[in-house]
């Protein structure tokens, strides 16, 4: 699957831990590969460093990555990104949001994001992918989030849900789509990420079951294959 002939702009909202850079591509490359590395044209913008595109029309599709930051932090670049999302949504651009991107898209368009009331969701999680008739197909995807969407924007339809996250996937007609889990994460990256944080920001009693959950291949290819349909791209 690829968005042939379209230009994709990656809005990078964070970077992986330094210790993992040698073994893994960074989040902008992961997201580029999710939407199709070739023959599309991609540009990356480190918006968390206040590097923004000049115009919302500089890309046909904007992809907002995951991040270690919280959309609730209130930083200047986060507010600036919300404004960019609102302008892009009002234009003819399409938008894809992942984790942080899922949350800030919802927040920018009138939804509410909050800290989870329980433990963070970390590991390979089971989701239900919903079709237009509400029929559910099971799907496993990697997840890592402390926040989540608590109230969806009025124009959004739920397309993915789980026992721990009702608004795990949202579709905004054919203009935007977003997911709380990480279809761009490989199993090895997820394992390395949990390992590097275990006992160093992530309690061992959370890290152990998260690592133990990584027993099967995630259904990332299902999400990648559906992106064109969600965004009504021929």
List the helices and strands and how they pair.
Elements: E1 7-12, H1 27-35, E2 41-46, E3 61-64, H2 76-90, E4 94-98, H3 100-108, E5 112-115, E6 121-130, E7 136-145, E8 147-151, E9 157-161, E10 169-172, E11 176-179, H4 187-197, H5 204-212, H6 220-230
Helix pairs in contact: 2-3
Description:
By secondary structure, this protein is α/β, with parallel strands linked by helices. The chain has a domain at 7-114 and 149-185 and 219-230: 3-Layer(aba) Sandwich (Rossmann fold). It has helices spanning 27-35, 76-90, 100-108, 187-197, 204-212, 220-230; strands at residues 7-12, 41-46, 61-64, 94-98, 112-115, 121-130, 136-145, 147-151, 157-161, 169-172, 176-179. Helix 2 crosses helix 3. The longest helix is centred in the middle third of the chain and has 15 residues, at 76-90. It is globular, with a radius of gyration of 16 Å.
Q: What is the mean pLDDT?
A: 94
Specify the biggest β-sheet: 9 strands, mixed
Strand order of the largest sheet: 2-1-3-4-11-10-9-6-7
Helix fraction by DSSP (H/I, runs of at least 4): 25-40%
Question: Rough shape?
Answer: globular
Under the CATH scheme, the architecture of the domain at 7-114 and 149-185 and 219-230 is 3-Layer(aba) Sandwich
Number of helical regions? 6
CATH class of the domain at 7-114 and 149-185 and 219-230: Alpha Beta
CATH topology of the domain at 7-114 and 149-185 and 219-230: Rossmann fold
Strand content: 25-35%
Kindly list the characteristics that best describe this protein.
single chain; nine-stranded mixed β-sheet; ChyE-like; GATASE; two-stranded antiparallel ribbon; Rossmann fold; globular; alpha/beta; 234 residues; glutamine amidotransferase; 6 helices
């Amino acid at each position: 699957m690829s968005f042939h002939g379209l230009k994709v702009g990656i809005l990078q909202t964070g970077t992986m831990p330094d210790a993992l850079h040698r073994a893994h591509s960074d989040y902008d490359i992961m997201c580029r590969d999710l939407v199709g590395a070739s023959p599309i044209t991609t540009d990356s913008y480190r918006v968390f460093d206040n590097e923004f595109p000049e115009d919302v029309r500089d890309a046909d599709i904007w992809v907002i990555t995951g991040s270690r930051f919280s959309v609730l932090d209130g930083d200047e670049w986060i507010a600036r990104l919300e404004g960019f999302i609102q302008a892009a949504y009002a234009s003819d651009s399409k938008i894809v949001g992942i984790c942080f991107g899922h949350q800030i898209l919802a927040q920018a368009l009138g939804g509410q994001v909050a800290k989870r009331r329980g433990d963070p969701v970390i590991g390979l999680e089971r989701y239900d992918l919903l079709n237009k008739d509400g029929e559910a197909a099971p799907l496993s995807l990697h997840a890592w989030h402390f926040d989540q969407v608590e109230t969806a924007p009025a124009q959004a339809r739920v397309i993915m849900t789980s026992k721990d996250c009702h608004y795990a996937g949202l579709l905004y007609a054919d203009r935007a789509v977003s997911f709380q889990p990480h279809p761009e994460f490989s199993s090895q990256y997820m394992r390395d990420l949990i390992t590097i944080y275990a006992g160093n920001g992530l309690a061992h009693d959370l890290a152990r079951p998260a690592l133990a959950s990584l027993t099967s291949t995630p259904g990332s290819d299902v999400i990648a294959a559906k992106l064109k349909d969600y965004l009504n791209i021929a």
